Amino acid sequence: MLSIPPEFRQRAAECGWRPLVTLLGALDGLVSQSEVLSYQGPFGVGYLVAAFTLAAGVKPGFTFPRAQPADASAHVQLAREAIRRYLLRGQAMDLPNPPPPLDVPAAAFVSLKLDDQLRGCIGTIEPEHENLGKEIIANAIAAATGDPRFEPVTAEELEQLSISVDVLSEPVPADYSQLNPAKLGLVAQWKGRRGLLLPDLPGVDTPEEQLQIVCSKAGIPLDKAGEAKLFTFSVKRFF
Predict the structure, then answer these.
(1) What CATH number has the domain bearing residue 162?
(2) Most buried residue among 2, 36, 80, 133 by CB atoms closer than 10 A?
(3) What is the pLDDT of residue 127?
């Protein structure tokens, strides 16, 4: 069940994968008997009613597989550990002497996903801390607990999260003809309002779409987009 690719589930328009995974997790390590009470498949859609009866004892040798994301980069390892310690202890971890390349100032965004769906994303346009390590720690905690679009991440969710860290270059002035949403992020400023969008995001394919989203995030009226100051930046994305 857990090995079914998310893209395949989306193409199949499934609606039962999560309930089945929840059921299997609830039955993990338990001996049970199942009985199909009803199954119908009208119009190519299957409807199943089944009963599971638990028996006493533990089924030897059975372990429900856990999805453990493999953190390949020091950036993501640090972000995950920062979230873990904050959820367990309620305080930010200390990083007095971060190793290279985490020892220099840089702006960064930390993005969290659960089942390929955004679970939190917080970052900075300019560095706000003395080094990248502390920038990642602060933004990882904020993404997990302070993104107003989502409920705070729970300790139970942590190991299932996919985490990415985007390290930003310094934004440079640009005009509309230089926008490239596949490779360059965008910052728009107008009358004290400012919005940002990272590059290479699903569903953002054209400069027009990128600019519209940035203006919407910043609260810039679309009919004033032509008056906004534009800045582009590149990112190094770590998984």
Answers:
(1) 3.30.700.20
(2) 133
(3) 97
Q: 82 and 127 in one domain?
A: yes
**Domain end marker among 168, 188, 209:** 168
- For 149, the domain range is 74-168
Residue type, 167: V
Instruction: Report the domain count for the chain.
Output: 3
Those residues whose C-beta lies under 8 Å from the C-beta of residue 142, and which sit 6 or more positions away, are 110, 122
Give dist(CA 239, CA 181) in Å, integer.
Answer: 20
Whether 217 maps to a domain, the answer reads: yes
Which CATH number fits the domain that encloses residue 223? 3.30.1490.150
Same domain, 106 and 157: yes
Q: What is the pLDDT of residue 70?
A: 57
Least confident of 6-15, 122-131, 165-174, 201-210: 6-15
Whether 94 and 146 share a structural domain: yes
How far from 195 is each of 92, 191, 199, 211, CA to CA, in Å? 27, 12, 13, 10
Query: Left (φ > 0), alpha (ψ -120 to 50) or beta: where does 66 sit?
Result: beta
Residue 228: count other Cβ atoms within 10 Å of its Cβ: 22
- Cα-based distances in Å from 237 to 35, 88, 183, 220: 48, 27, 11, 28
What integer is the mean pLDDT of 70-76? Answer: 80
Rounded Cα gap, residues 146 and 207, in angstroms:
30
